[in-house]
Amino acid sequence: MSSQSGSETYSLAVKYAFRELRGGLKGFRIFVACLVLGGAPIAGVRTLSSSISEGLRANGRVILGGDVDVRLTSRSASVEEAVWLKSKGQVSEIQVLRAMVGAPATDQRLLSELKAVDNIYPLFGTLTHPSSERANSSLQNLLSNDGGMFGALVEPTLLDRLEVKIGDTLKIGGLSLRIRAVISSEPDKASQGMSLGPRVIISTEALQATGLVQPGSLIRYHYRLDLNDQTIIESFRDDAKLSMPEAGWRITDSSNGAPGIKRFVERVAMFLTLVGLTALIVGGVGVGNAVHAYLDGKIATIATMKCLGASSSFIFRIHYLQVLALALLGSVAGLILGVGLAFVGSQFLASALPVPAVVTFQAGPLVLATAYGLLTATLFAIWPLARARETPAASLFRDVVAKRRWPRPFYLALVFLTFITLVALAIFTVEEKIFAAGFVVAAIAIFFVLLLLGHFIQFVAKVAPKFRIPALRLAIANLHRPGAATASVVLSMGLGLTLFVTVALIEGNLREQVQDQLPENAPAFFFIDIQNQQLPNFVGAATKIDGVSDVNHVPNLRGRIVKVNGVPAAKVAVASDVKWVLRGDRGLTYAKEIPVNATVVEGEWWPADYTGKPLISLDQGAAIGMGIGIGDTLTVNVMGREVMATIANLREIDWSTLAINFVMVFDQNTLAGAPHSHLATAKAGSDAEVDLFRTITKLFPNISVIRMKEALQTVAKILEQLSSAVTATASITLVAGVLVLAGAFAAGHRKRVYDAVILKVLGATRRDIFKTFLLEYTILGLVTSLIAAGAGWFAAHTVITEILEAKWINLPYTVLGTIVISVCVTLLFGLLGSWRALGEKAAPVLRSD
Amino acid sequence: MPQSSIVNLKSVSLTLKSDAGPVNILRGIDMSINAGETVGIVGPSGSGKSTLMSIMAGLERPSGGEVSVADSQLETLSEDDLARFRRDNVGIVFQSFHLIPTMTALENVAIPLELSGRTDAFAVAAEKLKSVGLGERSSHYPSQLSGGEQQRVALARAVCTEPKILLADEPTGNLDGATGELIIDLMFQLHDAHNTTLVLITHDDDLARKCDRVIRVEDGRVIEQERQSAPQLEGHSL
Q: What is the maximum span of chain A, computed from C-alpha positions, in angstroms?
């Protein structure tokens, strides 16, 4: 009877696959663990970020404070604009600015985030204030002018810092207010951006009375709308452009109520996903090792099946189905763990998020994480499977080596296709595709470099001169003997360590820059909203104080680029890293001379007596990103008026000094007549800082003073929190590497036991054998960590100097610490396994051979 | 009635490469076996007997010569074609049994039937197991069976598809005397029942004399072929 190969059906292959798995999953524990470890962070991070994004979207109106938010800077809406806005729905107006708040009782002052609200605020959501002077009073009641004094609501931190309590008086500008309540939750806080001080809420009437509202003051006017039924959110923006083309306002709608937070969450999620993917790739090495070891033990079975009539394709199918089944098991376990981690993560983030962190079942992230797991398992399993299928049936009679050392072209194509699919998924499922592509390319490059280096080390060990010390000679021989784990360990541990070192060095550099380097160069204070008439007295008062130096001041206006070479800004294609230049209002200034810490790199600075057409000096980076240069024009909307200026020169700005610098500097005449205030900076020694702060805040209550140290500390804190998350995820890659290490050592255990027994038979003591193992693992750990330290240093250096364009700070202890950890981990796992091998009795081993 | 030959080897040679130089395992073997015949192949260790069997089973390709088995020219077939050839025509019993450790006795016997696409694979397998006296042990794994029992399972597996040729390579090499005799008796009984051509590799002359013909192999060459009288069976009933 003859039958076609169609009798070797997939259902038969499935049956055989599961029959073979009855032998147990002993060799696959590492396989499954690697997939769990790699899949969990991806599933967890994506689930959490999707849930947060979904929460931001669902609560958009509350976060934004309206269906839409229309923002103007340094000016309020004109009558015409106000009428137009009112025609679209109910309007609530708030004003937001930074202002100094003083406590007369304690003579303390600090910078606050001041918010003036109207009677309708909040349009959506509720501002809660459980602790208040008047129980059950409305917000408007608490803020009203009662008995000649307006009320204020403050954040709890203000009470601590100014040493005041409810009922005490505050001074803002020229106005005294009474603290009437403490803010518990502010519904639209997330949409306001980064804060440099505690929140203080007063009424719009009160703000007018403070005297802080001056021409050119840095105040953001927000008009929140509850759109009427006739107006839909999607068309509001276009309608606004059409009806009020000159307004120059910035519109945000509730579908993306906190774009800054959304962007931040997406970027962090993307980075953590890529790191998780790296962990999965490291785990893939473990998968490949496990499959290879498993199939090595299956040679007799495969040969027997072939004797009985099974085709090579059938053999492949059986074992690939086994791999897929286990990969699915690992992926699903990873998903469950990941979703669990998302829940835990949401609890930790609850206080930091503007929306309830409700983790919901998100099919997309889970499907993606599963796909990653299955593709990774396939990628690393196909090669050993394809080679195993070539096992000759005659292997039962003799050690016959398969004729093909490489898999057949079909399987090579399958490996390539799987690889491409994995890379495509990594890049095209995130917003920042270029960053993702760069990360993927770097990871692949490091992977292959480590792979080659692993084999190179084995080659070096092979050709190295034979040392006289037996333990050392044997240790080096063990590095290149057939079946040695050297290449595998260098690759998996190396990849995890490289990522760890890279992250640690980048994080360390940024921390050093923010905490140590920047404060050394930076001014002690920034002063904002210095009015024209105050300027001479301000400079005089500041320079009089001993220890104060470098008092610099510049005019400060706000404006928005609306056209580039006559083309509306919205239609101009710009590089992603300079999109911010065209997004919303920018600080503007004008100057007669080249600003401090800037160099003209192209074109010429205008003469001191220039009186011609409007000219602009533009930051070189912004110019390159926008694809413009000398002679091109920018149309800037300044307080409702459009000014078209020609680019006269490009500047290279050293932002790291934190000196006052602007992307756009106008010639000294064009904007001189516009209402504006001044910015100033000053350097001061530690003692002079206190004097300077007290003097300026007392003499000029309207001037906001930003203490650079505090601002940098705020940034440092955010950086620290971020780096904890990144380091934790990078550690997972390291753990994956350790798992692969453990797996590689476990796979070699039998051989190690045999070697130990034979050495004992020949007269070696346990101490002698132990020394050999110790040396072997020390060399392996040291070589791996040196390679990883070098690769990590290179990657971090590239990121810091080329991408972030910052100065590199050497952190030798970080690198040294990584090397020490790597050697210790390799020693620990290696010696653990070897200790067991040393304890085995010789007779049973020799008998069974 | 002249018997037709089922195995024909013409100038078959096999040379293997090794680090120490080429090794001639078989040197110009000419041999033919008739359908239904029982043939014992004897020779000292390393004489090439097992290799000869591998060649006949399509497990190894000759370096030279022609191999015709059951009307198939083996040297022209691909690896998968050889696998299918074995499935349809050859049963093999190994010295080390080579049962699949993760499959039960019944499943092991059923493998060739399943690979052939037989829908009654397990029913036929159960019958064959019963015929070798292991009907009660069908759900046992190889590790739960004695050596003799494992070899009986292997024998059932080898004959379940009623192959044209049954090749047995030192089938009693890992068994004690009594068990070994039981296995041999079973093999000859199955041969009688189905007129299967039986090729028995052994270093035991007494065992070889039970066959119709004995071929003596030494140093990769056939040095003697001797026709025997009718085989004497010990008559062990199932």
A: 110
